[in-house]
Amino acid sequence: MTHAIRMHATGGPDMLQWEAYDPGEPSSGEVLLRHVAVGVNFIDVYHRSGLYPLPTLPAIIGMEGAGVVEAVGDGVTEFRPGDRVAYAGNPPGAYAEVRLIPARRLVPLPDAIPFDQAAGMMLRGMTARYLLFGCFPLKAGDTILIHAAAGGVGSVVCQWARHLGATVIGTVGSVAKAEVARANGCQHPILYRDEDFVAKVMQLTEGRGVDVVYDSVGKSTFMKSLSCLRPMGMLVSFGQSSGSVPPFDPGILAAKGSLFLTRPSLMHYTEAREDLLAHARDLFEVVQKGAVHISIGQRFALHEAAAAHRALEARNTTGSTILMV
């Protein structure tokens, strides 16, 4: 019998229980996957807390992993037992030693990329890909502001944006995280606890504002993020680690310079099979040529998932956090 982290009710990290679990055999179109490593992300916290409700309980959370195909169901021709694969996105179920997953959600994992690195980069890396190419077509000479610049997504965005020739400004919560962000290509890390990041952004851009803000923090940064943009700039609100953004008058967007706002999801940007493969291909390419380095800041055993959540929510993490199986 294999094991998984299951939750029977929403709430705090203590809801995550280590239990015996049998996923069963793959149905038509499914793959039985044995994980080697699993990624931990804020969306897992949202699922655990009930902020993003799951369809049913008990449930196994987790949106990202890497491992080896053990068996395939009828109609699966793209994969076979022994293949190295990785994934990020729906359906949840990654916090398990073994799981069933639709074959169309998997991507082949190049031999040059280790399982632990893959588990720490698929969701963050493909998120960075749609942020930089899908939401806003970033190009050389643009200037960005990325919140949580030393975090999992932030670290990838900083590196990839610099590779594209953009100027990178980022907010961080400590001197240590400022150094992490700087090492990842953030030329201007701002200690948001010590100085007003809006004033600093305007100083750095000589009053112009940035072309795009990537905001995964939400409630505590949203309105200030709007104030950092140039006229007709774009705010990409893709997370809410500080809480949900409260309702606001969309006339504010006009008052602040005919701004654009989007609230995207990786699930929509990678729903089509060809789009999923394109996101993974581009990510693997920049990683394999060294333009983007995936930093794994924390490793926990799978049964220590609750401790991983506590560290993530306390903002005591840098880079990626993974669960080893």
Structural commentary:
- By secondary structure, the chain is α/β, with parallel strands linked by helices.
- It is built from 11 helices and 15 strands.
- It has helices at 42-49, 115-119, 122-135, 152-163, 175-183, 197-204, 222-227, 251-255, 266-269, 273-288, 305-313, and strands at 2-6, 17-21, 30-40, 64-72, 84-88, 98-102, 107-108, 143-146, 167-172, 188-191, 210-215, 229-237, 260-262, 296-301, 320-324.
- Strands 3, 4, 5, 6, 7, 14 and 15 form a 7-stranded mixed beta sheet that branches. The chain has a 6-stranded parallel beta sheet with strand order 10-9-8-11-12-13, with helices on both faces.
- Helix 3 crosses helix 4 (152-163) and helix 3 crosses helix 10.
- The relative contact order is 0.15.
